[in-house]
UniProtKB/TrEMBL annotation:
It comes from Arenimonas maotaiensis. It comes from the Bacteria. GO terms for molecular function: acyltransferase activity, transferring groups other than amino-acyl groups. It holds the Pfam family Acetyltransf_1. This is N-acetyltransferase. InterPro entries: Acyl_CoA_acyltransferase (IPR016181), Bact_Acetyltransf (IPR050832), GNAT_dom (IPR000182). The keyword Manganese does not apply. The keyword Acyltransferase applies. Signal peptide: none annotated.
Length: 173
């Protein structure tokens, strides 16, 4: 199995590569190349991920196997949309698993690590946005106890897309 740990600055290059690869793998076939390229150019790169790793508002977890990053999640506390009814909600901004690790329980282990970290940050709920045309992710989040509470727009390149907003309480807060 893999080892889940907080990301460090030395992970920036590998993290950027993993983030872009998993994003392209997940959404590339359903979106035009120009919008995918624009999004990736603006969102992924060693310097971009290094800045995210240095941002005190973000907490990034990575799963590593034999020295290779195979999954990651990016968490953030702070502003949440109005449909997120919680006193102190934490967001899972990104959660992706490399294709060759799908179906091996890693997504669930990473989700458990995310909720554990958000509890440590005194979150009473966790929320996320997921593309409406990503049924596999929506099914996974429902299995993890998330329910749909709203929507927002995610702009991919120049294409405004609908994300479903989902929330899950964190009992024992």
């Amino acid at each position: 199995m893999s080892h889940i740990r907080p990301a460090v600055a030395a992970d920036a290059k590998a993290l950027a590569e993993l983030q872009e690869a998993t994003f392209r793998s997940t959404f590339g076939a359903s979106n035009c190349a120009e919008n995918m390229d624009m999004h990736c150019r603006l969102s992924y790169g060693e310097h971009i991920q290094r800045e995210e790793l240095e941002d005190p508002a973000l907490h990034i977890l990575v799963a590593e196997h034999n020295g290779r990053l195979v999954a990651f999640a990016q968490l953030r506390m702070g502003h949440a949309p109005g449909c997120i009814t919680a006193t102190r909600a934490g967001e899972i901004q990104r959660l992706y698993v490399a294709d060759d690790w799908h179906g091996k329980g890693l997504a669930q282990a990473l989700m458990d690590a995310c909720t554990g970290e958000l509890r440590r940050q005194n979150a009473d709920a966790v929320w996320l946005g997921v593309w409406e045309h990503n049924p596999r992710a929506i099914a996974f989040y429902r299995k993890c106890g998330f329910t749909e509470v709203g929507e927002h727009v995610f702009v991919l390149g120049e294409d405004p897309q609908r994300d479903v907003l989902m929330i899950r309480p964190l009992p024992g807060h």
